[in-house]
Amino acid sequence: MYLRAAHAESAISVLQQLIRENPLGILTTAISSPNYPLLQSSHIPFLLDVPESDDGAAPSNGILRGHVAKQNPQAKALMEALEAARKNSENEGEGRHPLELPDEVLVLFNGPYHHYVTPKFYTETKPDTGKVVPTWNYSAAQVYGKVRVYCDSKSEETASFLQKQIEELSQHAETSVMGYTGEGSKPSSWKVSDAPSSYVELLKKNIIGIEIRIDRLQGKFKMSQEMGPGDRQGVIEGFEKLGTEVGKGISETVKERASLLKPSK
Length: 265
Known about the structure:
single chain; Transcriptional regulator; Split_barrel_FMN-bd; TR_PAI2-type
């Protein structure tokens, strides 16, 4: 990710919040395989766990949890790589079979609003010099880390991981995404336990669990911070006048990010 200083977000907590509010990530892997493409990507909803840090310790980047259908070619490549890692550990005389793969994976999360920015919004520079060009405003976070694969349906470790994963992901989506909290006039949330247990067990046999320990977390809010105050105000007003939900969201985000800029000396 190109992190221009004006757009880079260095606060880990802000990027973690972006992930929580926009949990649909794009998992990208580069796994050398005789049977599947080297590069594969899948849209997967994730949960973010952030262990509490000890006093004075640096904040944890966190851990992502998700699941993938076994029929997904990317899942098949992950399982194939895990089996190869297990055979390698057996050849080297290691006891416990590994769950973590050696290569890094990437997960991309996008913010809720993105939009083309017309030069017409630059009400200061355009009439003055005409030296303006179109761009695109957006926000995003990128996660890099090692992936653990839970795919042995006979393993208690896999069963426990998948049960916890589907229950907590459903609860997060029902309450945080849908707003089904059961409070006041709001409906109560759907729970995994509402479905027949035999049906849930069958579905669990057809998915694999993935867990990514976040080694690096990077992100940016590209929201016209590089422009002068007059042009930024033109962007804010221009998007507001579009009268759309996305336009309003971009306008508010440009305004918010501008308020975080350090005043020029």
